[in-house]
Amino acid sequence: MNWPCFLIAALIAAALDGSLLGVLRVGDARPSLLMVVCVFVLLNAPQRTAFRAALVAGLMADLLTPIMYSDATVLVVVGPQVLAFALGAATFLSFRNLLYRKSPIALGFGTCVFAILVALGGTSVFVLRSMLGGETPWGEAGSASSTVLSGFVVAGLTAILGALVLPQLHRTRALWAFDSTSRLVGGAAR
């Protein structure tokens, strides 16, 4: 895979997530173009490369979306989104061969599943942290269930965005230089 192409696309997606995609906001939820780029890589790259790319995308999500507490304190925690993207990637890689890559409905479904797993993974990290006595980003005002519900709305919006953007990204597949070679083992056929 062409890593500079991925990094540039992921940075552009993260920048658009923070700026322009706020227009598509529904309540507190807005779609994530970074997840769409990650799903595109998960669909096309070899498994190890795709998993590493998901970890990098999770790191970008952690670094570019700080946690805002109710007392206006800003905290950047590296880890929750990395683990959430890892959970989403591991699950997505297990069923990616079942998706028809030229169908926008299938691409939207795959994006929705990935986004739901990222929402559940990120929330569960903070629930475990609160059990150990740490603070949670939702504080006193919200709860984990409202965060998960917001994550489901994000997943729906991201699925719609994925159904629209992924076919366009598929046209740029040659720029990404995904490995398409297979490793053949010599010897008698079995």
Could you characterize what this model shows?
The protein has 190 residues and is mainly α. It has a single domain, classed as Orthogonal Bundle (Arp2/3 complex 21 kDa subunit ARPC3). Helix content is 64%, strand content 2%. It has seven helices and two strands. It has helices at 3-18, 33-44, 47-64, 80-95, 104-131, 144-170, 173-176; strands spanning 67-68, 74-75. The longest helix is centred in the middle third of the chain and has 28 residues, at 104-131. It is globular. The relative contact order is 0.16.
Question: Could you provide a short overview of the structure?
Answer:
The chain has 7 helices and 2 strands, in the order αααββαααα.
Descriptors:
single chain; globular; 190 residues; mainly alpha; 7 helices
- H/E order of the elements? HHHEEHHHH
Strand content: under 5%
Report the structural category.
mainly alpha
Task: Output the CATH class name.
Answer: Mainly Alpha
Helix amount: 55-70%
State the shape: globular
CATH architecture classification: Orthogonal Bundle
> What's the rounded overall pLDDT mean?
86
In total, how many domains does the architecture comprise?
Answer: 1
List the helices and strands and how they pair.
Layout: H1 3-18, H2 33-44, H3 47-64, E1 67-68, E2 74-75, H4 80-95, H5 104-131, H6 144-170, H7 173-176
Antiparallel strand pairs: 1-2
